[in-house]
Design a protein that fits this description.
The chain is built from eleven helices and 20 strands. It has 354 residues and is of the alpha/beta class. It has two domains: 179 residues, Medium-chain alcohol dehydrogenases, catalytic domain (Quinone Oxidoreductase, Chain A, domain 1), CATH 3.90.180.10; 136 residues, Rossmann fold, CATH 3.40.50. Strands 3, 7, 8, 11, 12, 19 and 20 form a seven-stranded mixed β-sheet that branches. Strands 15-14-13-16-17-18 form a six-stranded parallel β-sheet, sandwiched between helices. A three-stranded antiparallel β-sheet has the order 2-1-6, with no helix packed on it. Helix 4 packs across helix 5 and helix 7 crosses helix 8. The structure holds ligand 572 and zinc ion.
Length: 354
């Protein structure tokens, strides 16, 4: 039975997470109230809990966590015509102003006034009932589960990374880092036509999952010698350098490897967030016309992500390694932090069990 009371996971201060009652939301014009089903824990949620901040985004007031989510439409606000009560939806967590230059040109992820779930001071949606802009709730096809719906958020990051990299049919792709974002980048790259993908990591266990998810080759990074590792990447690809590299670790040596490994004329997309300042072989990139690009979340990727899953081109389900009921969220965060039991994606179930 769905509960009629709201309960949420609130970060009060660093290391102080509480599962506590929240007010029941009501839908304003253009909004819906969603009865939440599944919320995945992201690395950013873990950082806010255990470090209290990411860069200059600091948790200064109690904040509901969570932004990888799905649920069922529970109530409609005034003027909502595209959704009905009972619709199953994936919730796109960043709602932009819709009016600025960036919004108008479609790069709404770069809107200066975007509000994004669980980025201080904005509340997230790790709770039982949550209010959101109706046009950022994407209806799920019958064949796509609500857990898969929650995974449309990280998959959208992978889709956006591949679009920024220009991944296309026939490409050879290097993905650096086999955490959740490296793995969704691998899945998106394969679905967009990459024929051969190499995934690197410093942990052998993570590479096993990458191989299961479709990486033809994996490379355990056991040195900081970027030129030597780049040669090993090319050797795995039969002597070809990758057309593009998607760097998902943020680690300085890995960014150096990305630049050395990528073929002349290719692109490196920096997805991972590490130190703010890193030393990179910039002339090596520039003189070989290797473009270095960044990404900031995603824009216009949810519909593609949902369609890739609906058509069976991507299977995100193996990413889920752990499930916890909302009431045990503190344990869930600890599992996500330590990676205990080979944790990749920890999923929280928001409703009381039937
Ligand atoms: O799923 C979206 C997402 N984006 C992340 C991190 C985790 N999940 N980003 C990295 C951190 N930046 S930020 O600008 N910030 C804390 C707002 O440093 C946002 C994108
Ligand atoms: Zn995230």
């Amino acid at each position: 039975m769905a509960s009629e009371e709201n309960l949420g996971v609130v970060l009060h201060a660093k290391n102080d997470v509480r599962v506590e009652p929240l007010p029941m939301p009501t839908a304003g014009p253009g909004e819906v109230v969603v009865r939440m089903d599944s919320v995945g824990i992201c690395g950013s949620d873990v950082s806010y809990v255990y470090k209290g901040q990411i860069g200059h985004f600091v948790v200064r007031a109690p904040m509901v966590l969570g932004h990888e989510s799905s649920g069922v439409v529970h109530a409609l606000g005034e003027g909502v015509t595209e959704l009905s009560v009972g619709d199953r939806v994936a919730i796109e967590p960043g709602v932009p102003c819709r009016r600025c230059e960036q919004c108008k040109r479609g790069t709404y992820n770069l809107c200066p006034d975007v509000v994004f779930c669980a980025t201080p001071p904005v509340h997230g949606n790790l709770c039982r009932y949550y209010r959101h802009a109706a046009d950022f709730c994407h209806r799920l096809p019958d064949s796509v589960s609500l857990e898969e719906g929650a995974l449309m958020e990280p998959l959208s990051v992978g889709v956006h990374a591949c679009r920024r990299a220009g991944v296309t049919a026939g490409h050879r792709v290097l993905v650096c880092g086999a955490g959740p974002i490296g793995l969704v980048s691998l899945l998106a790259a394969r679905a967009l036509g990459a024929v051969e993908v190499v995934v690197t990591d410093v942990t052998a266990g993570r590479l096993e999952l990458a191989a299961q998810l479709g990486a033809q080759h994996t490379l355990l990074v056991d040195s900081r010698d970027a030129p030597a590792l780049a040669e090993r990447v090319a050797a795995l690809l039969g002597g070809h350098q990758p057309d593009v590299t998607i760097e998902c670790s943020g680690a300085e040596p890995s960014i150096q490897l990305a630049i050395h490994a990528t073929a002349s004329g290719g692109a490196v997309v920096l997805v991972g967030m590490g130190p703010a300042v890193v030393s990179v072989p910039i002339i090596h990139a520039a003189s070989r016309e290797v473009d270095i690009r960044g990404i900031f979340r995603y824009a216009n990727c949810y519909p593609t992500a949902i369609e890739l899953v609906r058509r069976g081109l991507v299977d995100v389900k193996p990413l889920i390694t752990h499930r916890f009921p909302l009431e045990r969220s503190v344990e869930a965060f600890e599992t996500a932090r330590t990676g205990a039991g080979g944790a990749v994606k920890v999923m929280i179930k928001c409703q009381p069990e039937e």
